[in-house]
Amino acid sequence: MIVLGEDELQQAEKALAPLSPAAVKVYGCLFSINRGKALNLEVVADSWPDFSVLVCKPKVQGTADREGDFNIYSIFSRDQASLKKLLSSPGLLRWDAFTLLAGVDINHLDAVTDLAAQHGVPARTQCVMHVLMLNSHDQLRVYQSVPEDRIRPLQAEHAALVNSTWKYGGDHNSYNSVLGYISNHPSLCVMDEGGGGPLSWVLLYHHLALGLLYTLPQHRRKGYAKTLVSSMAERLMELGYPVYCFVEEGNSASYGLFTSLGFTIKVSFRPVWLEINEK
């Protein structure tokens, strides 16, 4: 088990860039870390420089945000055996605490569930995802349903509103996460014409996936979400960011929205969010 230093983190980012979609979540973490935007994350490799597994994890578990509270581990693995060996390393995982392993290749899932069984702890699949990506500006089908001057970045003062509507929000830890997303990464919202605040918004997680896409119920079916994703995709490409999102299997509405804008899916790669122990 090797904790990557500053130089290795830069090298790892370059190495993962062409390995999407399987590596895109850890690549996003590295992108954030290398730009000083995700201070409580570190990356562990099974070997260096010829790695087979990279795990991005909290430096300090149990911190007062959702990432620390959920002990979220982002995983890239080339094969089952290497993943099982690294996760078996003393001190990497706390088998007596709740941990969310995010982005485990479904083809490598047995390695993790076998380890959990060996430790006598429960392991439960929270969800199975698809990765939808936009690889070039030519691929994007630009869409805009509101004037440009109503599309603006979110501000710190909007964090409470976003947190109150987030599927995983509603408490102080999730509020701190939302505030961190707004403060450290690009975000966009559609503002009310009368200056009453955001009506619809999209943010980036620390791994840079598009997320928290939401429109207030009374303002739906006006194309706001589609407009925001289109505008955000353009801005992210200008900044050199990866442009992608995770869509849960069976979520046809989200799948339809992103594919209508030119996002594509590689159906052979399905990442799994796996819970170890109960929350």
From TrEMBL:
Family: Belongs to the glycine N-acyltransferase family.
Protein's name according to its UniProt entry: Glycine N-acyltransferase-like protein
Domain of life (superkingdom): Eukaryota
Molecular functions per Gene Ontology: glycine N-acyltransferase activity
Domain N-acetyltransferase positions: 149-279
Pfam family, one: Gly_acyl_tr_N
UniProt source species: Denticeps clupeoides (denticle herring)
GO CC annotation: mitochondrion
Enzyme class per UniProt: transferase
EC number: 2.3.1.-
Keywords of the record: Acyltransferase, Transferase
Keyword Endoplasmic reticulum found: no
